[in-house]
Amino acid sequence: MSVRSNKPHEIVEQALALSRADGCLVIADETSTANLRWAGNALTTNGVTRGRGLTVIATVDGQQGTASGVVSRSAVTADELEPLVRAAEAAARGAGPAEDAQPLVTDVAADPDFTDAPAETSSAVFADFAPALGDAFARARAGGRELYGFANHEMVSTYLGTSTGLRLRHDQPSGTLELNAKSPDRTRSAWAGRSTRDFKDVDPAALDAELAVRLDWAKRRVELPAGRYETLLPPTAVADLLIYQLWSASGRDAAEGRTVFSRPGGGTRIGERLSELPLTLRSDPDEPGLECAPFVIAHSSNGDRSVFDNGLAAPATDWIERGTLRNLTTTRHSAALTGLPVTPAADNLILDGGNRSLDEMVADTEHGLLLTCLWYIREVDPATLLLTGLTRDGVYLVEGGEVTGQANNFRFNESPVDLLRRTIEAGRTEKTLPREWGDWFTRAAMPPLRVPDFNMSSVSQGV
Asked: Distance (Å, rounded) from C-alpha 54 to C-alpha 73?
């Protein structure tokens, strides 16, 4: 019999009851997905899937400290539950003391819906979106465009139980839409992406109209050399850069002198001004439209997360406040090592900008570039957080406040930290889908940014 035939909270309780370790944490993740795929103005596939993952974390106290053992498996049957628990205990006994060991979190009120059935998605999430997409196909066909893309909706219900009494639960909806428009001869391509919780705020007609304009821009091709250009970065590109910055904002690594947030001579750059603009970069589990888990969910330990912190509150945090660095990510362990406050990272990121739209910023550009998105981003130098990557699906030349054609693609070399220092204008913040990191991080809201000297280090033949 599959464990899936039992309710997730029952599996958590059964695993905890089977534990013989000094401490035990159990995380059950119930996942359902629904998706649509289309090509050449026609739906091609759709589907719905469901699955369950179970993680057991055992802790064993010893003379030298507390060790932890983590075992995660999917599709666990009832007969496999006890062997899974025993495997976690064996892993803990075979490991040395965990460097990040801390007392398990206690004294957190149980979620009243902990025993409720998991939330699920289904094809019904596309009830309004799918007909609107069909209408967009008809308009694209009439306009000589072909639409390709993918829409995915996922619901993850996470149940966290511990031997110290925690019973927490979080339902996380995540939706992504990627839409490409191509000319019939495939010589022109434009991309747009959106992040959504329920597909009720996604307008295929508006996206198709946006892509039609970009395809029209691409009728004129301009070859430009590498160099530094005044560049308008749209929200999706800003998100990709600043998400990587957040992933690189370990307080411990900074205190140990290994990152761009390390202060020369020792310590961190907390308190240092990073931008002359009053930009605030923050995470908030209660941010409207970007809601995420208000507590730590850690299936394994790494530099930024600790399994011992499971259930710890993840409050709203300003990483950069009006241009000044205020916080770096820490666990309870790394906070004790560095003297920094305990600051877990929530699973969203917002940069508060100004009031003007990207179109208004284009109208105020005498000569510059307008990007669509970035991809293939890789780190070059952690000491400066220098990143390299490619532009994709449209680099547009702006002259006299108007887009006059499509330029070639470029490889760029930029540090998001240095980029914030040089940014001279931030537009209106909006929800966006990161192009590069959208498979891992979908909850972001960013403004477009104007950078006077974005470094296009070489010409790329990418599309």
From this structure: 6
Which pLDDT does position 462 carry in this prediction? 62
- Contact (Cβ atoms closer than 8 angstroms) between residue 154 and residue 32: yes
Q: Look at strands 227-233 and 367-381 and give their pairing.
A: parallel
Residue 266 main-chain phi, psi, to 5 deg: 125, 150
**Roughly what angle, to the nearest 10 degrees, separates helices 8-18 and 78-94?**
50
Are 38 and 147 spatial neighbours (Cβ–Cβ below 8 Å)? yes
Q: Please give the structure tokens belonging to residue 38.
A: 């289309």
Q: Are 424 and 454 in contact (CB under 8 A)?
A: no
Q: In whole angstroms, give the CA distance from residue 227 to residue 92.
A: 54
The H or E element spanning position 370 is strand 367-381
pLDDT digits (tens, 9 = 90+) for 253-289: 999 999 999 999 999 999 999 999 999 999 999 999 9
DSSP string for residues in 384-398: TTEEEEEEEEEEEEE
Asked if 214 and 415 touch (Cβ cutoff 8 Å), the reply is: no
Q: Is the pLDDT of residue 357 over 70?
A: yes
